[in-house]
Amino acid sequence: MFQLKWVWKNLEGCRKRYVFALCSTAVLSMMALVNSVLTAQIMDTVFTPVKEGQGTTPELWHRLVVLVSILIGFTMFRMCFNYLSVMTYETCSQKLLFKLRRDLYANMQAQDSSFFSKNRTGDLMTRLTGDLDMVRHTTCYVIRMIIDCVVLFLTTSITFLCVDWLFALAMLAVTPIIFILTKVFAKQVHPLYVDLRERLSRMNTAAQENIAGNRVVKAFAREDYEIEQFDKKNEDYRKANLKASLLWFKFSPYIDGFSQSLSIAVLLVGGSFLIMGRISIGTFALFNSLCWTLTNPMSTLGMLINDLQRFFASASKIVELYYARSTIVTRQDAVKKEGRVQGAVKFDHVTLKRNGTEVLHDINLDIKPGETIAIMGPTGCGKTSLISLIPRFSDVSGGTVSVDGTPVGMYDLKKLRGSVGIATQDVFLFSDTVDGNIAYGDPEMSEDDVKRFAKIACVDFVDKLPEGFDTVIGERGTGLSGGQKQRIALARALAIKPSILILDDTTSAVDMETEKYIQDQLAHLDFDCTKIIVAQRISTTKRADRIVILDKGRVVDVGTHEELISRPGYYREVYELQNGIAGEKKGGAA
Amino acid sequence: MARNRFDVDETLETPFNIKHLLRAGVYIKRHKQKMILSLVFSAISAACALVGPKLIETALNVAVPNRDYKMLFILAGIMLLSILLSIFFSVKRSRYMTVVGQAIIYDIRKDLFEHLQRLSFQFYDDRPHGKILTRVINYVNSVSDALSNGIINFILEIFNLILIAVFMFMCDVRLSLVVMAGIPLFLIIVLVIKPAQRRAWQDVSNKSSNLNAYLHESLDGMKITQAFTREEENAKIYNNLNTKMYKSWMKAQYTSNLVWFSVNNISTWVVGAMYLVGFSLLGPAVQIGTLIAISAYAWRFWQPILQLSNLYNTFINAVAYLERIFEMIDEPVLVDDAPDATELPPIKGDVTFDDVTFSYDGSINVLEHFNLDVKAGESIALVGPTGAGKTTVVNLISRFYNINSGRVLVDGHDISKVTLHSLRAQMGIMLQDSFIFSGTIMDNIRYGRLDATDEEIIAAAKTVRAHEFISEMPDGYYTQVNERGSRLSQGQKQLIAFARTLLSDPKILVLDEATSSIDAKTERLLQEGLQALLKGRTSFIIAHRLSTIKNCDRILYISNKGIAESGSHDELMEQKGHYYQLYTAQLEE
To answer: Which residue ranges does UniProt annotate as crossing the membrane (chain A) (predicted)?
Structure first.
């Protein structure tokens, strides 16, 4: 039930309207009864007298005209009111949805990488589509119908009890049984709906990965395999759906049976009472004509409970996302920093553990503002982990990382990240124009600036694109070569004029000539900037002020290019390999 | 066609027609038997339900005046029976419809997914992935009820309507006509709001598609967003889309709800009018008994119309989604097996480009009159400036795109005349972006050859020097990884993808910047392992690190839409051309 409370909490701002809608439903359900009263009136006061031989008197005609006018006027009023009521539900539920989407989106943006490695895109998409829709359905339909049912049931019950308590009790006798049945059903169906939405989420994830990995699928001609895999998910979902839906049909015969048995009660009890003379024919007619207002709510309620259980399963998933909190946030006591960050970076006895294994071990590194540092090391040695500590993509497990003497944890996150320009290894571009991608960090940026940074990063191929800087590139930059993507990513990082520029193997797919050009450009930027460059190629690292060699999460060597090639070690080996000195000997066969 | 973005509605070329519903009929037809049975069951169930009022009437008219308790019990017994029958059949029908509804969405989704697998890169490159995803999952789910229960109810309500109309006419023709006078009025209202309604629901489908596309991309690019502290700006964009979604939904609701609003009002008007007309005609022309009888039918006549109008709303809504689904199923397969395509027999690995001209968009040629002859077992390196078309050349061998003119031959077979599967299955392609599927590392490598044993997988991993780091992971080869998982570094991902490619045991191997993120030492070791493997296989290697390609049989310098230089490392060095410059530049460093 906490899910409903949570919904109520989020209805803030239109709670009054929602309460109005709830009340209007109650009024409307009673108004629906008035219609039958009016038509009964026409029968009783106009037609019956005629039938009984009074003939068509002007008086009756007049009465008929009045009653018909009331009927039409009342219906008109009722329908307008109903329309208003339904639209109020829609407005409230849509406002709720709007707010939830807004908050959920904002909250997801505040999550750290551990959240995103746990929650797959397909699953998050399920929450913001299917699950949210269940919340909408519940607030604007299920709740309305429940109120309708309850009010109808209660009004009729009370009327019946007032007219003849014994007859009424005879009819209401089945209520507790139906209540128990519904309760048992709700309990049994709940886990099935939890399972169902899990299946939906899995199917969503499978489809999402298939679409994202479509190139690999095609490269390996694995279409049939993918179809087979997806088919399993599709089938699982279908089965789970059937299982949950069919459970209702195990209960519904009994619930329907008991609720419809009310007409038997009318016939049997009412008939007997009539014979005994306990009730009049009018009372009998009343019970008989209003019987459906007891029967319908009873069987409808079961279905609504079904929907409600589904809602509970979905809503808990959203609530979970709604309250997910990242540990990487701006601290309350964050230091206010004015002006531009100088760009001094210090690693002081830094260790980093991930999933129990130590990724970085006792790293000490002092980088002065404006310095260019290259980081090198074997695959998986912790290079990317190391640099991701600077903009606080991860928090250290021990020691401190500080920028300009202040621990990064004490910074306002926005200020910190706004000072760090990063071009990641796995280039992600947005399906936007080239211009929009470069100006990603500063949407206000002028066209000239965009072109200037594009030039520094050698994004010269833009001229060859059909619409130049206004060419829309595909999601994840599909359609561009690896080197082209990297250059746009570099321009994007430069465009925010960062105090600290981090290039994580950003030029690996760029040809040598272009890389040389980019390096020249980087050496002469018109803003002060500390550069931290992760690279595999000597050509990239050579000009750095210092080169840091990482191995298995430890700093094993630090020095300039000249220093490092003069002593044996990883760097010299790589140097020799890349210049073919060692290569000639070993690869002699070719 | 320009690329579609998250903020651009996808226009729909085909005008509205009932064809989409009829086309959905293909899926419904498979369940013909169940559908018909459901109809029959519903009819029986409805008939049983009709017995109730008759029994009460009998009780009132016969049993009560006669003080006949026995008869009362008999009547109650009959009623119980009718209720049981009615429930039995209605539950049976509902069960059938649930099964059918689920089967239909299963089938549609299956067809959609299968079709998606046949679509080329271009399709995926041209639109946000979130839009494709929403259709496969959410849209398909939205149509299940309309296509199962919706259809049955529609037929039943029509029957119901006809039946009541017949009874009504049997009472009195003139009064019946008064009651039916509301229908033209109702139809006019429906026809007037229909275009607006349809547009409104299409708009909803568009806006939700846009919203989801942006959400999807935001989730994928979250790290970049955070790095560039673009959260607020993105939230603004998202909320803008969110607002549009809100507005379009409300608009659709404002129009859709007018339908029941008008039915209820019109029905009251005509029944009221019928009362008045009937009353004024009372006398020899119209008996009072007739009037009482027909007024009961008059109310009931409009019930099915109300139900039908609700169903109509459901259908309009469903069609908005069906259109999108079928549009995707109809998406032409640009790269497809030729009608008379044959299986490519096991190949040796000769590759020939014969006067190939190719352009991605039809306007700018990437390759022009490109000729290349590669013998089986040869290793070919492609170098040249970024964007010169190196990746394009290798993509054409696997026929990821269709060429504009010329021929690409493998072992003398024109690749456009063999089945795609037989072609690609014999090639091993390692793409620039290595994609890791969620699952274990073992599964990811096995993707290259599904029947590979664990030992073979480990052997492949050892060859590419991935074994060491995999063994160090908490669960070794059974460590769960995924595309965004931070467990794997870019270089490690490449090694896994490399192992995957090797495992497929291809005759033609394509390595497109396969080792760019792998450190030099590991690459060196990897190369040694590769030497043995490359024997007897044709290989195409794209790399910027020249140490990687020096030993290739032939190096092609690609620029200006063709091959500028071709030859072995030594030959090209002697030519002192582009390659020479490139190499010496790298040496200088």
So the answer is: 18-40, 60-81, 141-160, 166-186, 264-287
Contact status of A284 with chain B (Cβ, < 8 Å): yes
Considering the domain architecture, whether residues A345 and A198 belong to the same structural domain is answered as no
Same domain, A82 and A42: yes
Q: Tell me how many domains chain A contains.
A: 3
For B114-125, write each residue's pLDDT tens digit: 999 988 888 888
**CB contact (8 A) between residue A264 and residue B114:** no
Q: Is A37 exposed, middle or buried (0-12, 13-18, 19+ CB in 10 A)?
A: exposed
Residue A430: closest CA among A421, A439, A422, A419: A439
Sequence-ordered alpha helix ranges (H) in B368-485: 390-397, 420-424, 441-446, 454-463, 467-472
Chain mean pLDDT for chain B: 86
Instruction: Quote the pLDDT of residue B114.
Output: 92
The interface predicted TM-score of the complex, written ipTM, equals 0.88
CA max distance for chain A: 125
Q: Name which of A31, A216, A463, A576 to mutate to probe chain B: the one with the most chain B Cβ atoms within 10 A of its Cβ.
A: A216
The model's confidence at residue B17, banded by pLDDT at 50, 70 and 90, is: low
Q: What is the CATH number of the domain that holds A397?
A: 3.40.50.300
Q: How confident is the model at residue B588 (pLDDT cuts 50, 70, 90)?
A: low
Question: Using the beta-carbon criterion (under 8 Å), do A474 and B3 form an inter-chain contact?
Answer: yes
Give the β-pairing of A530-534 and A345-354: unpaired
Tell me how far CA of residue B348 lies from CA of A276, B345, B351, B413, B535, in angstroms: 101, 10, 9, 12, 12
Q: Could you tell me the residue range of the domain that residue A574 belongs to?
A: 341-418+499-516+527-590
User: A-contacting residues of B 331-360, CB under 8 Å?
Assistant: 360
Is some CB atom of chain A closer than 8 A to the CB atom of B182? Answer: no
Do A376 and A312 belong together in one domain?
A: no
Q: How far is CA A188 from CA A3, A245, A312, B408, in A?
A: 19, 12, 13, 62
The amino acid at residue A121 is T
Query: Is residue A234 scored above 80 in pLDDT?
Result: yes
